[in-house]
Amino acid sequence: MKKPRKTRTARAAFAQRVKKLHRALGKAGLDETAGFLVAANSNIEYFCGFTGSCGFLLISPDSAVLYTDGRYTTQAKTQALGVAVCESTQRPLDQLISDLKKQRVRRLGVEENRISYALVQTLRRQLRRTRIEPLNGLVEQLRLVKTADEIQKIRRAARLNSRAFDDVCARASAEWTEARFAAEVDFTFWSLGADGPAFETIVASGPHSALPHARARPQSITPDSLVVVDHGAILDGYNSDMTRTICFGRIGSEQRRIFQGVYEAQKAAVDQVRSGVKAATVDQAARKVIEAFGLEDAFPHATGHGVGLEIHEQPRVGAGEQTRLTSGMVITIEPGAYVEGVGGVRIEDLLLVTKTGCEILSRTPRRLRIL
C-alpha cells in the first residue's frame, strides 16, 4: 500500500534537509566519513519530525538513526520519517556510544551551541578514538530561510493567534485579573485547535507593564492604564508571536506619547524590511524614532528575532547585527518603551521577508485598543 501523499512529501522534505546538512558539514571541514550528532529537540524535529523530549539523532553519510527511550519508541515510529528508530533496553546515550564504537567513527560533529559541557566530556571520555568537533550554529543557519510549507504553517499559526486575541478582547472585562486574561488567551488557543501557547502569555497593566517580561499577576487589571499583551500560539509545530497594547478606560497624555512613539517606531522598522537589508538597519530605524520621542533610555531590547520551530530563532534584529535579511525569513518587529512608574508599550508583528518588502502575518490592527 502506498504511503499517504502528505507523508511522502514530508519524508522528501526531511531528506532534502539532511542533504543540505551534509553539504554544510563538508564546507565546515568534516569529510564524508564523519558523523554529526543532533541533540537539540527542535533540530531533531527539523530533520525528521520527532517531537519527543528525549532523543539523539546520529546523521552519518549513509544513514540517520534516532535514539530515544521506551517512553517514545511508539511515537518515534509514527513521527520520525526518513530515519531508523533504535530500539534498545539501554539508555539512548549508552546505545549511541556503543554504536559509534562499533562503527569506528573517527570524527563526530556536535552542536556546540546546543550541547552541554557534561555531554561533550562524556563523549570524549567514552570515545577516545573519536575526535569530537563542536560546530556552532550549523543547523540554525540551515533553518534561517523557511520553505513554502514552513511559511504556510507559520502563517496559519499567526492567523490563529490574531483570532484568539480578538476573541478574548471581545469578551474581556475590566474586572478580570491579569492572570485571568492570560488564561483566557491560552484556553482560546487550545479551543481553536492550537498545539498550545508558544510561551507564557504576558499580560501586564499599569506600572507593571514597564517590565518587558512581566508575569501576569492574580491582581485586577489596572484601569485607565496601558496593558501589554504578548502572546503566541503553536500550530503544527510552528510558532507565532504578537504583542498588542490595550487599555480598559482612558489613558493620559504621557501614556499616549509613549504609545505613539512605539507605534511610529514599529512602522519605521517594518518599512525597512526587505531582502538584502542588514538586520542592524531595521533596528536603527526603530531607534531613531524612539530617540525622537525622547524614549531612547526606555527601549532596552532588540527590535526583533526570527521565529519558526522555536519562538526565538536567528536572525536577531538588533544593534550591530550584520546578517542580511533574505526572502523566506520570518521575523518579528517589536520595539517597546518602558517607563518606570508609568507603564510600557510594545507592538509586535510577525513578518515574512520578501524581495521587495515584507508580508505582515499578524492580522490584528496595531492601534491602541480601548476596551
How would you concisely characterize the structure shown here?
The protein is α+β, with helices and mostly antiparallel strands and 371 residues long.
Describe this protein's structure.
This protein is 37% helix and 21% strand. By secondary structure, it is an alpha+beta fold. It has two domains: 5-143, Creatinase/prolidase N-terminal domain (Creatine Amidinohydrolase, Chain A, domain 1, 3-Layer(aba) Sandwich), CATH 3.40.350; 148-370, Creatine Amidinohydrolase (Alpha-Beta Complex). Strands 4-3-2-1-5-6 form a six-stranded mixed β-sheet, sandwiched between helices. It has a four-stranded mixed β-sheet with strand order 8-9-12-20, covered by helices on one side. A three-stranded antiparallel β-sheet has the order 7-10-11. A hairpin with a 6-residue loop joins β13 and β14. The relative contact order is 0.11.
The secondary-structure class comes to alpha+beta
Number of strands: 20
* Percentage beta strand: 15-25%
- What gap, in angstroms, lies between the N and C termini? 56 Å
